[in-house]
């Protein structure tokens, strides 16, 4: 359920311009400069929601730089407030923008990993182009990722999972891992859950894919 719009959220985000980038211009190719460790890998979560996942990643992996990307102002403000309340990690920044603008935001090969967690499944066929694993989106990710760059995708929607298996396979990615029941399969004990995941995993299995951009090394 989408949060009710908070008219004060945008002003609050602007008050924290050192850690929140709102539809930025001129940052393409320069994101590493936002962090103390500019040589660290750069990971992004697209559609981070209230930020539980990206915050825990930043705390757990201080030698990686993280960007939490969210297009909805009120949702992003919730994540910011949580981060400020609990302590904002130095290796994390927030980005208010839309995935369709990745080519304007990131230089080719600027990212090491992309996370997609519980994206809107857009179940009707006429809305397929809005799915974040639609071929046109996958092309944007491939360009933004380094050669051999990685994507991690989680969903509880079986139809979206099956659809994404096909689109990843047909659009320049190779599979590293396919998990059909993330919470009940050995080897995933280090899984970091999103807020949505904690609430709804009891309703059925969580599906997970790990893929890499296809290159000479992996065919």
**What's the mean pLDDT score?**
95
Q: Give the N-terminus to C-terminus distance in angstroms.
A: 41 Å
What would you call the structural class? alpha/beta
Q: In terms of per-residue confidence, which ranges show pLDDT below 50 for 5 or more consecutive residues? A: none
Strand arrangement within the widest β-sheet reads: 1-4-3-2-5-6-8-7
The biggest sheet, with number of strands, parallel, antiparallel or mixed sense and barrel status, is:
8 strands, mixed
- Specify the overall morphology: globular
Number of helices: 7
Portion in strands? 15-25%
Give me the Rg, rounded: 17 Å
Question: How many DSSP-defined strands?
Answer: 8
* H-E order: HEEHEHEHEHEHEHE
Residues in helices, as a percent range: 25-40%
In short:
This protein is α/β, with parallel strands linked by helices and 219 residues long. 28% of the residues lie in helices and 23% in strands.
How would you characterize this protein structure?
The structure is a single chain. The protein has helices at residues 9-14, 52-60, 73-86, 102-105, 135-144, 158-170, 195-200; strands at residues 20-22, 42-46, 65-69, 92-96, 111-117, 145-155, 173-179, 207-213. By secondary structure, the protein is of the alpha/beta class. Strands 1-4-3-2-5-6-8-7 form an 8-stranded mixed sheet, with helices on both faces. The longest helix has 14 residues, at 73-86.
Q: Topology of this protein?
A:
Blueprint: H1 9-14, E1 20-22, E2 42-46, H2 52-60, E3 65-69, H3 73-86, E4 92-96, H4 102-105, E5 111-117, H5 135-144, E6 145-155, H6 158-170, E7 173-179, H7 195-200, E8 207-213
Parallel strand pairs: 1-4, 2-3, 2-5, 3-4, 5-6
Antiparallel strand pairs: 6-8, 7-8
């Amino acid at each position: 359920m989408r949060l009710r719009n908070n008219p004060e959220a945008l002003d609050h985000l602007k008050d924290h311009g050192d850690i929140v980038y709102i539809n930025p211009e001129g940052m393409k190719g320069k994101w590493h400069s936002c962090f103390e460790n500019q040589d660290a890998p750069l990971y992004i979560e697209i559609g981070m929601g209230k930020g539980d996942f990206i915050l825990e990643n930043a705390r757990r992996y201080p030698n990686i730089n993280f960007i939490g990307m969210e297009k909805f102002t009120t949702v992003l403000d919730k994540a910011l407030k949580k981060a400020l309340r609990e302590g904002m990690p130095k290796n994390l920044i927030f980005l208010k923008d839309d995935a369709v603008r990745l080519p304007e935001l990131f230089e080719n090969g600027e990212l090491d990993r992309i996370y997609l967690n519980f994206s809107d499944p857009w179940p009707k066929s006429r809305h397929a182009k809005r799915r974040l694993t639609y071929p046109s989106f996958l092309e944007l990710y491939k360009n933004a990722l380094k050669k051999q760059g990685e994507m991690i995708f989680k969903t509880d929607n079986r139809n979206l999972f099956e659809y994404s298996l096909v689109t990843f396979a047909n659009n320049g990615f190779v599979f590293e891992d396919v998990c059909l029941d993330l919470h009940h399969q050995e080897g995933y004990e280090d899984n970091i859950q999103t807020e949505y995941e904690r609430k709804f995993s009891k309703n059925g299995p969580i599906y997970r894919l790990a893929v890499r951009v296809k290159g000479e090394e992996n065919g």
